[in-house]
């Protein structure tokens, strides 16, 4: 493996193994044909450009494709990682956007969970009141448990939906920005 | 040449060339770089993007002799996209040319 391919492989380390091999194979073929037509490795590498810059182009495009295929929280996380490590312009902004969304979602979840937890607590109170022989208190606690429990669970369900929507839309939102700046950098 | 020009033009060149005949990566790089100064390596990310968007597909062939090479072939969608892009480009350059003529008056 020549210097160009080694540098390219190193720069693509965040990429999925199969995808990385595909990409490297394309450049390997390029070198083989070039060498066969009488060029030197240096000439070919010089015409190709900087492998680190090319890796950025692949990463931005790869992330964009993945955003189309599988949208979700894991994709989002992987995208943040890729963008940050490639120091593409806008990567920082995207990361901040993600983390703000993440923080908001986590606190909403915590709220919903504590409501549900209060429901579970009421259930415990109900059992205690039955044991102590206060049926009226037990009934009251039962209704409290019903309200709080179902409320909490419904909130969680709703939040799960919001979560999916949010982290489904964000990758697409950020995608264009990333592609643009990555492209600009590699071409410059 | 201006980097912004090249970025858009490279895609147009690839689509136009592939509309005439299937080609492998090296061939595209060589053909395009004889006329336009580009970092040839940027062709491969572009080809990958075109493929992921369904504008082209790849197959292996050894018709040129030697080890099999990866050929790129336009899909119908790619053909249509190329036509549209070319039309836009021609309108654009035509209007820019008219504008520059006005300037000489």
Structural class of chain B: alpha+beta
State mean pLDDT of chain B (0 to 100 scale): 89
Overall outline of chain B: elongated
Q: What is the mean pLDDT of chain A?
A: 81
C-alpha-based Rg of chain A, rounded: 27 Å
Oligomerization status of the protein chains: heterodimer
End-to-end span of chain A in angstroms?
27 Å
Protein architecture, described:
The complex is a heterodimer of chains A (188) and B (105). Helices cover 88% and strands 0% of the residues of chain A. Chain A is mostly helical. In chain A, helix 5 (73-86) packs antiparallel against helix 6 (91-132). The radius of gyration of chain A is 27 Å and the shape is rod-shaped. The relative contact order of chain A is 0.12. Chain B is α+β, with helices and mostly antiparallel strands. In chain B, 65% of the residues lie in helices and 13% in strands. In chain B, helix 1 packs across helix 4 (76-104). The longest helix of chain B has 29 residues, at 76-104. The radius of gyration of chain B is 16 Å and the shape is elongated. The interface between A and B is medium-sized, with 27 and 23 residues.
Strands, helices and their partners?
The complex is a heterodimer of chains A (188) and B (105).
Chain A: H1 3-11, H2 17-36, H3 41-48, H4 51-69, H5 73-86, H6 91-132, H7 135-187
Chain B: H1 3-20, E1 23-24, H2 25-35, H3 43-52, E2 56-61, E3 69-74, H4 76-104
Antiparallel strand pairs in B: 1-3, 2-3
Helix pairs in contact in B: 1-4
Key structural traits:
heterodimer; A: 188 residues; mainly alpha; 7 helices; 0% strand; B: 105 residues; alpha+beta; three-stranded antiparallel β-sheet; 3 strands; 13% strand
